[in-house]
Amino acid sequence: MVSAVSSLATFSRVAAAFVFAGVLGAAPAAAEIEKILNPCDQKLCPFFRASIVIPDGWVEDREATRYFNSQFLLPKDVDFDHAQAKIYVVVRYNRNKQPISDFIPAAIADWRSQAKDAKITRLDDLPRGDGKPAFERRAFEAPRLKEQGYELQAVTTDDDRDGNQFIVTITLSANSRGALEAAEPDYLAILKNY
């Protein structure tokens, strides 16, 4: 079960990704976004799902996926509260069609608000096949945070079968550098297959 303490820490990171995803835009890509309506607060709320390939050794945590309204992957046989690394995918409708660069200052400011001494590194873009937009990537490091002090984030654009535009943020979040490094090959496999 998702604990209140872990939920709050994770909610901070997921909320930042939601904000990031909510204001970004770019050119259309392959139709890979699935639209789902889930019951919430006595109404139907949209949930957008990316077509990712879950690597061996990982499973989708359906409870966390529903709670955070984003796809959450955990190592097999490890519950949410004990997972040293988590992968989550946030997909948000790109209504305003703004470029990724419009949001970068706010994303960095959010990280700095979590940890003033956070080290944020721009990584090389990761190309995607078939003319799809590349992943824009960053690494975040804040060793003083007990949870989610290490993250890799990759952002790209995609659209659904109706031509609606979306921003897709795929994040590997870990409690230690070692946990991040151990999970990174699986994370990169997700990016490579997307």
The CATH architecture designation is 3-Layer(aba) Sandwich
Question: What is the CATH topology descriptor?
Answer: Protein Transport Mog1p, Chain A
CATH class: Alpha Beta
Tell me the domain tally.
1
Q: What's the name of the CATH homologous superfamily? A: Mog1/PsbP, alpha/beta/alpha sandwich
Polypeptide structure, described:
With 194 residues, the chain is an alpha+beta fold. The protein has one domain (4-193): Protein Transport Mog1p, Chain A (3-Layer(aba) Sandwich), CATH 3.40.1000.10. Helix content is 28%, strand content 37%. It has 4 helices and 9 strands. The protein has helices spanning 4-22, 62-68, 104-114, 177-193, and strands at residues 31-40, 43-50, 58-60, 71-75, 85-93, 119-126, 135-141, 150-160, 165-174. Strands 1, 2, 3, 4, 5, 6, 7, 8 and 9 form a 9-stranded mixed β-sheet that branches. A hairpin with an 8-residue loop joins strand 6 (119-126) and strand 7 (135-141). Helix 1 packs antiparallel against helix 3.
List keywords for this structure.
single chain, 194 residues, alpha+beta, Protein Transport Mog1p, Chain A, 9-stranded mixed sheet, 4 helices, globular
